Structure to design on (359 residues):
């Protein structure tokens, strides 16, 4: 299994705060070593490796993770755009309900009607 | 099942509600009532069905007027309103570490996640569909809200959830015309310049020419969507992967 982490640089050149948050959590949780490759999706450069991968996979948000596994039928790629699902399913980690709720809120700005 | 946001094809809110109540068992569908002008949904639904499930998120930080109004609605329509509260341990931990007003410094997400999203998520796990008062004209984050959608935020592939937004295509003026015409009770804060009503520390009255969302989380930038990748740069070449949201 190989894991690629794609983090974003915003159009104004600043790092995406959520990407920074996720990276920090990976470090704090001792999972950084599980990441085989980190790619930058630079919104100013459609040809940047992360933007290119996002386009190939049809991913429209960042950060995201690509997990590649060898199977009998070839290489299977799974894309995770929600960190807590990646944590649970790939890193086999327990997640806190409040962290999950926060991610739901951040990924769904229309929930501001609540 | 998700529709596109298309005002030309919108049905009347009553037709959408009728459809929703015919598709889902009464114990599997509920109205989310915020204690504001979404009361029109309760008024409409009360005329369509006898058995109505309504819930409201009590963050513990609502205006006294909102609590009074929730009670008024309960009595006026004779409906049970389930009041959902946050986990006290989670609230205690946040308040102990960060104080009672951390949202002004750190943004509202952490507080809303604990006080709103978690209790909501728990409730929605018991339902097949929920009904909201979301409208496209309320916010830049809602311009694409359809009347009927698969809820990607709280539903899963194993346990799908439908979000019904009967008022999606209505304007604020239409909502208020309905409230006046039908003599629907409303939160008195609206008469004091509160167009959008949430928690007391995070809501303020707005001026005559301000958008209604200017009264919520005004210290934060409304339009910044940090997670999206600009679509024009992302013409997908292949979908031969499994995307897990």
């Amino acid at each position: 299994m190989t894991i690629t982490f794609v983090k974003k640089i915003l159009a104004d050149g600043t790092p995406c705060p959520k990407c920074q948050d996720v990276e920090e959590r990976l470090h704090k949780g001792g999972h950084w070593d599980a990441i085989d490759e980190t790619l930058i999706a630079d919104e100013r450069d459609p040809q940047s490796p992360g933007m290119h991968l996002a386009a190939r996979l049809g991913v429209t948000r960042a950060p995201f993770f690509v997990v590649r596994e060898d199977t009998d039928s070839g290489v299977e790629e799974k894309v995770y755009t929600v960190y807590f699902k990646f944590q649970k399913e790939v890193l086999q980690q327990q997640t806190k309900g409040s962290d999950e709720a926060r991610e739901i809120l951040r990924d769904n700005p229309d929930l501001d009607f609540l | 099942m998700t529709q596109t946001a298309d005002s030309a094809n919108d049905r009347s809110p009553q037709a959408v509600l009728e459809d929703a109540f015919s598709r889902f068992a009464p114990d599997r569908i509920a109205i989310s009532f915020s204690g504001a002008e979404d009361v029109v949904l309760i008024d409409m639904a009360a005329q369509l069905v006898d058995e109505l499930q309504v819930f409201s998120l009590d963050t513990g930080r609502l205006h006294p007027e909102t609590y009074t109004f929730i009670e008024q609605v309960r009595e006026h329509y004779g409906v049970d309103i389930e009041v959902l509260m946050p986990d006290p341990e989670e609230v205690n931990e946040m308040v102990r570490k960060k104080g009672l007003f951390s949202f002004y410094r750190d943004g509202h997400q952490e507080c809303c996640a604990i006080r709103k999203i978690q209790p909501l998520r728990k409730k929605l796990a018991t339902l097949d569909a929920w009904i909201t008062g979301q409208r496209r004209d309320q916010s830049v984050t809602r311009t694409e809200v359809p009347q009927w959608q698969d809820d990607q935020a709280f539903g899963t592939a194993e346990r799908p959830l439908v979000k019904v937004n009967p008022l999606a295509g209505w304007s604020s003026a239409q909502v208020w015309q309905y409230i006046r015409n039908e003599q629907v009770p409303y939160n008195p804060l609206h008469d004091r310049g509160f167009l959008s009503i949430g928690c007391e520390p995070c809501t303020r009255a707005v001026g005559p020419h301000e958008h209604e969302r200017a009264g919520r989380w005004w210290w934060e930038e409304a339009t910044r969507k940090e997670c999206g990748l600009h679509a024009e740069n992302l013409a997908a070449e292949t979908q031969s992967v499994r995307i897990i949201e």
